[in-house]
Amino acid sequence: MANLTTNFIGIKSPNPFWLASAPPTDKEVNVRRAYEAGWGGVVWKTLGSEGPPVVNVNGPRYGAIWGADRRLLGLNNIELITDRPLEVNLREIKQVKRDWKDRALIISLMVPCDEDSWRDILARIEDTEADGVELNFGCPHGMAERGMGSAVGQVPEYIEMVTRWVKKHSRMPCIVKLTPNISDIRKPAEAAKRGGADAVSLINTINSITSVDLDDFAPEPTIDGKGTHGGYCGPAVKPIALNMVAEIARSRETAGIPISGIGGVTTWRDAAEFMALGAGNVQVCTAAMTYGFKVVQEMISGLSDYMDRKGFTDTSELVGRAVPNVTDWQFLNLNYVTKAQISEADCIKCGRCYIACEDTSHQAIEMLPDRTFKVKDDECVACNLCVNVCPVENCITMVQLPKGQVDPRTGTPVGDYANWTTHPNNPASQAAE
Amino acid sequence: MSNSQLTPGIVPARLPASTLAENFTDHEPPLDRHEARVAADRCYFCFDAPCMTACPTSIDIPLFIRQIATGTPDAAARTIFSQNILGGMCARVCPTEQLCEEACVREAAEGKPVEIGRLQRFATDTLMAKGVHPFTRAAPTGKKVAVVGAGPSGLACAHRLALKGHEVTIYDRRPKAGGLNEYGTATYKTVDDFAQAEVAWLLKIGGITVKTGVTLGRDVMLGDLQAQYDAVFLGLGLAGVNALRVPGEDLAGVQNAVDFIAGLRQAADRATVAVGRDVVVIGGGMTAVDAAVQSKLLGAENVTIVYRRGREKMSASAYEQDHASQTGVRIIYGAAPVRVLGEGKLAAVEFAYTEDTPEGLKLSSETFTLKADQLFKAIGQTLAGAPEGLGISGGKLALQPGQRIWAGGDCAAGGEDLTVTAVAEGRDAAEAIHASLMGAAG
């Protein structure tokens, strides 16, 4: 069995599955249950400055979207940072850490944007023996209006400044959590690196309105007839998060900075994908909030089996393995030609590939009188839509044409690797001649 | 009364009233809202969906299921009713396992089709429970049409004609409208007097007059209808029953299964319906299964269906056969009656095993005898003669062009003898009548 132990910026945990700073990590009782279930680490829900705690709404604070069978695909929340007194959180953190020394325990922080506030809170937490801090520069609702959370995370100069303060006033490893509510994720990551951050974690939640009540005409979740944007997470945000992780992993300025991957991790496979794109570990929230803490057991067994299959003995062999294969569109091989192929044995004859292609794509699938479906190679551009709409996994596959074979659609033989930068239709390539 | 399952002869009240009530509750209880949403989520919204092709009335099944899935069951019901105004009854009695659900791609994929029949019932029940009729009549055309037979084909024809603004009069020989919906289907499939409720709801379209207790050829003649109306539709059904043609068939205790089923449907109190201790049903269709299962539910000790061919040839579906078996009915395949035995009244039936040969079914010399105090004949219904001026061809009404007579349902050629087929034929005949009447007018 593969060794899942990870060492993330000097913080050891028995597996790369951490619970993200969020409602599941707000109290001792939750965190103890999480450790008992097998989670490798926990980022304690964000602490604020000393003083009267923040208050939350007393109506609904979550909204959601669902797929078939009401499977939860996306969750949105308008909950703020911890609304419990600072001293209670600190006492509990210390007690839990004392009992669970082999697990990672990180404290998430969000205080006003001045050096004194940061110095004070860092001094307060030093005594807890927590393994590190995560700076919450991501929360998009409630705190941002008070100049914290994503209000800081959207300004790279602030990120750099605050990170510097933290590194100056604390010896703890420092993770900067990034907001995705920004046009280029590399800028805040670069700022964190300049400020001395040991790692970045991403993504925090995405600004969103999940739905509208069509009787009350108000966004959900609705509080007394009104609603506000909340932070969106869950399986639906994974593709956005994967891209942002990959952008940081492959950017020259930020390459190599440790990344804690967050965003819709629901199964071992999601976690492995984040890690392949450069994340040293992952943080999970929605999957636990949907199914309870036990889901980590599937993640552990799944990742372990996968690593065994691949012959990896350490997670470091997986981390970043897909990064070299993330490239820009212009470098994709335009002479890589594939055609859809439908397995008649697996086909259940729903016809969705046919109508998707016929109505919305390239009219490249033929429906025969006996309701069998056949790809017209001379029309198929290999767009993959049929694969994506087919209800049966692997019923439709994309088959590569070997080099030299004539593509019936274009009438030209498949050639060697060539991309847009040298394509005759590219004005830039012609200008270069 | 102190009858029990063991009481000899044909007697009522073999079971306590509470057991009878339980036995005749809804065969397949309706889906609740949550169940319907879960079931609807399984539909793939197929293109040119096989389920829709398999439906004799061509209901747009993927569309109505999507309408249920998106929380609009009334819209789903309108999708159903626009093709099949008796969609409520069909949801209850259709052999879906041989039609839409057999064709469902999830049957191919997983052996578990989308529950189309139950979803259809959910949608139609939801709208019908509101007591409103979803369609509005067109302006009156001044044309009058006579519909003979208030069964599924007649009702579907009348509704479609009324919808288009024609004035319709329905004649039926029975005291109540509904035809086989009222008199012919199993009681546990149409609980709470659904057939009558459906007729009342259907008639809300307006423009339809129903005259019951009127028999064609006796109380009213086809020639008179042709003279009084612009068109005539015949949905006569099959009023005759095939005979066994074996000695002893006229002994007391030998009955038509359809009469037993109708009697049970019409009984105000099921405890008054008499049933034998040892019941034998001869036949292989839905009528045989309905008679056998309901005999068992009334408390018969032993119920046996005997069918002359093999299981796969039986016109009752495998699902219905299994349902019969689960109820405690024994099914014997490959045997045919040779003699009905008894002194003055039925005592037993003698059967011979059959052999399916290339020359046809042959009786073997090996026989067996089943004890019986009640025997139901369920070997098919037949047209009880044609109205004057019309012929019979292949057991169905033969119509001549130019007579301004249309026909549908079991009495008409084409299609299987199913409720849903009758609805399709009635509806299509109405469209043909409408085209003919309006074409002539224009």
Automatic annotation (TrEMBL), chain A:
Q: Which Gene3D superfamilies match?
A: 3.30.70.20, Aldolase class I
- Cellular component per GO? cytoplasm
Composition skew (Polar residues), residue ranges:
419-433
Q: Which domain of life is it from?
A: Bacteria
Provide the E.C. number(s) assigned to this enzyme: 1.3.1.1
Write down the chemical reaction(s) this protein catalyses.
Answer: 5,6-dihydrouracil + NAD(+) = uracil + NADH + H(+); 5,6-dihydrothymine + NAD(+) = thymine + NADH + H(+)
Q: Which UniProt keywords apply?
A: Iron, Iron-sulfur, Metal-binding, Oxidoreductase
**Matching Pfam families:** DHO_dh, Fer4_21
**Single Gene Ontology MF annotation:** metal ion binding
Domain 4Fe-4S ferredoxin-type, by residue range, is 338-370, 371-401
Q: Which segments carry the region annotation Disordered?
A: 407-433
Q: PROSITE patterns, per this entry? A: 4FE4S_FER_1, 4FE4S_FER_2
| Job description of the protein | Involved in pyrimidine base degradation. Catalyzes physiologically the reduction of uracil to 5,6-dihydrouracil (DHU) by using NADH as a specific cosubstrate. It also catalyzes the reverse reaction and the reduction of thymine to 5,6-dihydrothymine (DHT).
Family indicated by similarity: Belongs to the dihydropyrimidine dehydrogenase family.
User: What's the subunit arrangement here?
Assistant: Heterotetramer of 2 PreA and 2 PreT subunits.
**Protein name per its UniProtKB record:** dihydrouracil dehydrogenase (NAD(+))
TrEMBL record, chain B:
Which SUPFAM superfamilies does the record cross-reference, listed alphabetically? alpha-helical ferredoxin (SSF46548), Nucleotide-binding domain (SSF51971)
Q: Which Pfam families match?
A: Fer4_20, Pyr_redox_2
Q: Which domain of life is it from?
A: Bacteria
Domain FAD/NAD(P)-binding stretches? 143-426
- Spell out the InterPro entries in the cross-references: DPD_II, FAD/NAD-bd_sf, FAD/NAD-binding_dom, Helical_ferredxn
Q: Which GO terms describe its molecular function?
A: iron-sulfur cluster binding; oxidoreductase activity
Dihydroprymidine dehydrogenase domain spans which residues?
A: 22-131
Positions of transmembrane segments: none
Name listed for the protein in its UniProt record? Glutamate synthase (NADPH/NADH) small chain
User: Per the UniProt entry, what species is this protein from, by scientific name?
Assistant: Gemmobacter aquatilis
